[in-house]
């Protein structure tokens, strides 16, 4: 697997990202129903970038970090543009974790809705994302105080 994100992330999350970028993910399963927003037609780009549930979450992140963002059409373009923003080594590492962490949380939520008939509220999804990102930062960047309060929305 060759992506700029494949090191320092849980293997399953890196594999999810790799398959998303290469449009493999949803080609493995033919799905006609989007479980996140309960509409027809599921695609990687819609699931991770354009679904109304996802759009609300991304907008909250953008507001929280103080950036204006126009969402590209494709995941690969999104990740290319996302790479260009960062700062210090630690903040750049955390910055690169945000999309992968949110994609992972959304994928788990989608699977819960699809296969277990279990649906989290937006607040629960937000909290899951924040706690997952905090966990990744604490365990992968090794600076446990860096993320505290940064993404509480």
How do the helices and strands line up, and which of them pair or pack?
Elements: H1 11-21, E1 33-34, E2 39-40, H2 44-50, H3 52-65, H4 75-83, H5 89-115, H6 122-141
Antiparallel strand pairs: 1-2
Structure description:
- With 153 residues, the chain is mainly alpha-helical.
- It has one domain.
- The chain has helices spanning 11-21, 44-50, 52-65, 75-83, 89-115, 122-141; strands spanning 33-34, 39-40.
- Strands 1-2 form a two-stranded antiparallel sheet.
- Helix 1 packs across helix 5 (89-115) and helix 5 crosses helix 6 (122-141).
- The protein is globular and about 40 Å long.
- Mean pLDDT is 74; it is low at 1-8 and 143-153.
Provide the descriptors you would attach to this structure in a database record:
disordered C terminus; mainly alpha; globular; single chain; 153 residues; 2 strands; two-stranded antiparallel sheet; disordered N terminus; Reverse transcriptase zinc-binding domain-containing protein
In a few lines, what is going on in this structure?
With 153 residues, the protein is an all-alpha fold. The chain is built from six helices and two strands, in the order αββααααα.
């Amino acid at each position: 697997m060759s992506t700029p994100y494949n090191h320092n992330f849980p293997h399953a999350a890196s594999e999810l990202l790799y398959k998303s970028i290469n449009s493999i993910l949803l080609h493995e399963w033919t799905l006609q129903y989007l479980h996140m927003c309960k509409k027809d037609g599921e695609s990687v780009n819609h699931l991770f970038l354009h679904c109304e549930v996802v759009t609300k979450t991304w907008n909250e992140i953008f507001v929280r970090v103080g950036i204006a963002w126009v969402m590209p059409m494709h995941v690969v373009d999104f990740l290319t543009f996302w790479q260009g923003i960062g700062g210090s080594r630690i903040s750049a590492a955390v910055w690169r974790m945000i999309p992968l962490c949110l994609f992972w949380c959304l994928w788990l939520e989608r699977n819960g809705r699809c296969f277990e008939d279990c649906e989290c509220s937006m607040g629960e999804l937000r909290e899951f994302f924040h706690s997952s990102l905090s966990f990744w930062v604490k365990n992968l960047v090794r600076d446990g105080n860096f993320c505290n309060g940064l993404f509480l929305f």
